[in-house]
Amino acid sequence: MSHEQAHPDPHAPPPHPQTLPGIGSFVVDTGHRPPRIGKVTALDDHGVLYLRPPGGGTEWNPEPENLRQPTEAERDLIRTLTSPVRPSGCP
């Protein structure tokens, strides 16, 4: 019997959140193909989440069991989509 511990796959997506994410956080809804990244914009009294795509768009209601934390590559995409664009000629 080996006492080695299994190492997690570095390419595997992060696990699903254990609790509902907070307002303003980004999550990935795996209930869509392809999965959709969304920012939590609201959480009602019944635990229904409302997500909006990074940079704006139409809100949707995901199933909580379909949510997971973004991968590092998805976090990079979120930063790109939510970064303000400076007008040309500005330092």
What does this structure look like?
By secondary structure, the chain is of the alpha+beta class. 12% of the residues lie in helices and 20% in strands. It has 1 helix and 4 strands; from the N terminus they run ββββα. The protein has one helix at residues 72-82, and strands at 26-29, 36-43, 49-52, 67-68. It has a 4-stranded antiparallel β-sheet with strand order 3-2-1-4, with no helix packed on it. It is globular, with a radius of gyration of 17 Å. The model has no long low-confidence stretch (mean pLDDT 84).
Defining key terms:
91 residues; alpha+beta; 4-stranded antiparallel beta sheet; 4 strands; 20% strand; globular
On the 0-100 scale, what is the average pLDDT? Answer: 84
Q: So what's the oligomer here?
A: single chain
Task: Write down how many β-strands occur, each being a DSSP E stretch of 2 or more residues.
Answer: 4
Report the helical percentage. 10-25%
Unreliable parts: none
Structural class: alpha+beta
Bulk shape: globular
Computed CA radius of gyration, to the nearest angstrom: 17 Å
Following the backbone from N to C, one meets helices and strands in this order, namely EEEEH
How much strand content do the residues show?
15-25%
| Major β-sheet annotation | 4 strands, antiparallel
Please give the alpha-carbon distance between the first and last residues. 62 Å
Topology:
Layout (H helix, E strand, L loop, with lengths): L25 E4 L6 E8 L5 E4 L14 E2 L3 H11 L9
Antiparallel strand pairs: 1-2, 1-4, 2-3
